[in-house]
Fold:
Amino acid sequence: MSAAIMNRHATLTDEEIVARARRVFVDRGYAARTQQIAAAVGLTWGAIALRFGNKDTLFARAMAGPEAPPCPPAGAAELPGLLQRMRSYLWQRWPRRLQLRLAPGKAPAADEAEGLVRWLAPVLASLAQGGSVRSDIEPETLARVVVALLIGDAARGFVAGERTPGDDPALSDAVQRLLQGA
Structure:
């Protein structure tokens, strides 16, 4: 075998390329230069373009990667855990969504916030029937407020340059008080 073949680096998967490019796009937005992306990925821009076609395609894939929301709780005792999982999920996803929304002509295909509201409302309705969550406000309205608060928290963290959600007992307590009508 020739030395050139033996010294060849392992091939990066599309997922690895997307993950490395995502970090650049989250930090720099759509304005990231192709040279910056290539340096972060560890390939030439030509090699990346052969795989993804162009920057637009790579950007869309990096910023809108599919990920499932947290699982619904079995009961009211799991409400704090559910809220924490939703918060972590949004902290992971929302910087990408913000960058996607800020990119010229790159609006997301579906509104993720509405999807989370549609997912959370029946969970809250079930908890309201069991008396664990207030029933004087429609579950969909409560879900909208909770999702808006958690997205606002993730957006605030993104703007502040924070990369992971710290422990925020005040936010958790406020959301729980809102849900329980306290």
